[in-house]
Amino acid sequence: MQQRSDEHDLKDYYARRAAEYERIYDKAERQADLARLRESLPSILQGRDVLEIACGTGYWTQFVATRAASVLATDVNEEVLELARPKDFPRDNVRFARVDIYSEEQLSRQFDAGLGAFWWSHVPRQGQERFIECFHRRLQPDALVLFLDNRYVQGSSTPLTRTDEHGNTYQTRTLDDGSSYEVLKNMPDESELSAALGDNARALEYVELEYFWYVTYRVARGVQV
Ligand SMILES: C[S@@+](CC[C@H](N)C(=O)[O-])C[C@H]1O[C@@H](n2cnc3c(N)ncnc32)[C@H](O)[C@@H]1O
User: Fold this and answer.
1) How do the residues of the chain divide into helix, strand and coil, expressed in percent and rounded to 5?
2) Band of the pLDDT at 134, cuts 50, 70, 90?
3) Is the CB of 77 under 6 A from ligand 1?
């Protein structure tokens, strides 16, 4: 049975996918880009106190933690956090917490950087403003933000099956147990990203690789927590 993708279903889909998730990083054609990202992300976030949202199995956490001052890596699903915690964090500078991006929960620390890997693509276009507000609320003014995500590449990406009335695109994904999910997956270009972030971001820099894009910017309007 195919399930539809709203916030709840997205959470459920990633809970069920936890054990299979990191296979996405084995795709042969993406290895050169991934190697470059494993170098770039830690260097961009060097020395920072990072709030990572939707950290999943901690794949990017493990690289970022080699250079960041500290990382609070958060995800809504305990299933993925259980796979993230045992990874190797030799500098003992990583903590994990179960946090919903959209919750009102206050985090006790201050962060001068925010990281979201493969999260932006799952935010509905009509919910981008709400997401940015929820994320920036937890960051210091002028914090550095980094989003990393997929570009659509024919033959490598899962095909997009439909576009809804807001311009969101969707994929059909099947897990090992045969269950099938319709998942919202947007693949914005630089101008869409820049327009979505608007006045909330300054000093935006967009970097395009063959299979991925990433963007860095400074939080223009922060709220002290
Ligand atoms: C595409 S995965 C990205 C995982 C990881 N950042 C990576 O790049 O390997 C998306 C993650 O978002 C998490 N997630 C889904 N809904 C969430 C929510 N409302 N708040 C926090 N995390 C959520 C899922 O559990 C999943 O781990």
Assistant:
1) 35, 25, 40
2) very high
3) yes
Mean pLDDT rounded to a whole number for the chain: 94
pLDDT in tens, 144-153: 999 999 999 9
178: left (phi over 0), alpha (psi -120 to 50) or beta: left
Tokens of 210: 């063959």
Q: How open is the CA angle 113-119-123, to the nearest 5 degrees?
A: 115
Its domain, for residue 138, covers 2-154+188-219
Please indicate, yes or no, if residue 178 is contained in any of the structural domains. no
Indicate if ligand 1 lies below 6 Å from the C-beta of 118.
yes
Q: Please state, as a whole number, how many other Cβ atoms lie within 10 Å of the Cβ of residue 151.
A: 17
Instruction: State the pLDDT at residue 4.
Output: 46
Locate the ligand 1 atom nearest the alpha carbon of residue 25 and give its number.
Answer: 9
| Atom 24 of ligand 1, residue of closest alpha carbon | 14
115 lines ligand 1 (CB under 6 A): no
User: Token digits for 102?
Assistant: 């959209």
Cβ–Cβ under 8 Å, residues 95 and 89:
no
